[in-house]
Write a structure and sequence with these properties.
With 62 residues, the chain is mostly beta strands. It contains no helices and 4 strands. The mean pLDDT is 78.
């Protein structure tokens, strides 16, 4: 449990192979690591980061 090495950023990536969106950690070296490790969506996932974790505008406006 070493949560202190470098700065991982949470984000959401989409698998370009099957289109599945998954939560990921983006490491300082630019690599993408699915959160949970074993949550592979398919045999050869290819993740494309689509957004950072910012609960930006998904709030009800009323
Ligand atoms: Zn996939």
């Amino acid at each position: 449990m070493s949560e202190t090495e470098g700065k991982k950023e949470r984000g959401v990536a989409t698998c370009e192979n099957c289109g599945q969106p998954i939560p990921v950690n983006v490491w300082p070296d630019g690599t993408v690591h699915p959160i949970g490790g074993k949550n592979r969506c398919c045999a050869e996932p290819s993740y494309q980061v689509v957004e950072n974790e910012t609960p930006a505008k998904f709030v009800d406006e009323n």
